[in-house]
Design brief:
The chain is about 35% helix and about 10% strand. The protein is mainly alpha-helical and about 325 residues long. β5 and β6 (about 245-250) form a beta hairpin. The radius of gyration is 25 Å and the shape is globular.
């Protein structure tokens, strides 16, 4: 019987190749992730952005309640010593990392994940820098709608430059999230996009989708978007279902994404039937179900995490007269 050393070189080569294939199969998804990471098209490094989200996104929902979050702008403002300086080393580093790879060099899925991430970051960054009312000490604004001094309205002021052109948050959303280059900003968007995208965007307001504590990634984007939609649709401020009357009531937030639902808000029913909570799915699947004629208003207050107020000390019975 031949020993290992006496095996011919061609046979040894085939043995080694077979061994490597087995090891790749055993490594499973880890190998797939490695292959994706080493793909020809580059993508941004989200490690610092992920750590940032985990640090400042606070889960506010209680046990058995739909998942919900707030963002701690105030703590970020203090941690970065922004008062009197107007800059942040950490936010600057994250911005640099997010803009390190030109979007034209990314794959389609990586580019979409990048656009969602950068949009959310731009909102969080701007809301933090604009948090305090000028010349009013530590009085903070109650809404992004109030942060319209200086360069202009919160969503309309230039905030990022790409390929030599400055974009506002609203323009970035139109151009890069929805890839809509035909529509003017003064017109409603006509090009439909993925209906889940509007539920993955941070709007800086309590009535918007909850900020998610993780970055989107091209290699798991579809599953992440499903999760974002499920989280949003489970919140009563976005969707309510009445099984008895076979009716669905939705947030007025969806009006701005009307193009994604066929131009008619009743077009959201297929999405609810797939990703909504149980009762809503039951109603949406019913061919006789209807959309409530009145939608729910959007709470536009800043989605700041409100810390529980300290309880007043109990009175000492010994001091009573």
């Amino acid at each position: 019987m031949p020993t290992f050393l006496s095996i011919s070189r061609p046979l040894l080569g085939r043995v080694v190749a077979a061994f490597l294939l087995v090891m790749l199969a055993i490594s499973g998804s880890g190998a797939a992730d490695a292959a994706y990471s080493s793909a020809a098209t580059p993508r941004p490094d989200y490690r610092e952005y992920n750590a940032f989200l985990k640090r400042y996104v606070v889960v506010v929902s209680k046990k058995d309640e739909p998942y919900d979050t707030r963002f701690d702008y105030e703590q970020l403002y203090v941690d970065e010593n922004i008062y009197g300086h107007g800059t942040s080393e950490r936010l600057g580093a994250i911005r640099t990392a997010l803009l390190a790879v030109p979007p034209a060099q990314m794959s389609a899925k990586d580019r979409q994940a990048w656009a969602l991430n950068l949009y959310d970051f731009l909102v969080l960054e701007r809301a933090t820098f604009k948090l305090i009312v000028p010349n009013r000490k530590y009085l903070r604004f109650k809404s992004v709608d109030e942060m319209n001094f200086g360069e202009g309205h919160f969503f309309d002021a230039p905030v990022v430059t790409l390929d030599g052109r400055a974009y506002s948050i609203a323009e970035f959303e139109r151009r890069f999230v929805y890839a809509d280059t035909a529509s003017e900003m003064i017109e409603a968007r006509q090009k439909p996009g993925d209906p889940r995208w509007c539920m993955a965007l941070c709007r800086g307001m309590k009535g918007g989708p909850p900020v998610l504590p993780w970055a989107f990634s091209g290699d798991s984007l579809d599953a992440q978007l499903d999760r974002a939609a499920r989280i949003t649709l489970a919140l009563p401020r976005f969707l309510r279902a009445d099984v008895a009357t076979k009716s669905l009531q939705i947030s007025d937030y969806f009006a701005q994404a009307r193009a994604d639902f066929g131009g008619d808000l009743s077009g959201i029913k297929p999405l609810i039937a797939r990703l909504g909570p149980s009762a809503a799915r039951t109603v949406a699947h019913d061919s006789k179900s209807v959309m409530a004629p009145v939608t729910m208003p959007v709470d536009r207050l800043l989605d700041q995490f409100d810390r529980p107020k300290a309880a007043a000390p109990a009175a000492d019975p010994k001091t009573k007269s």
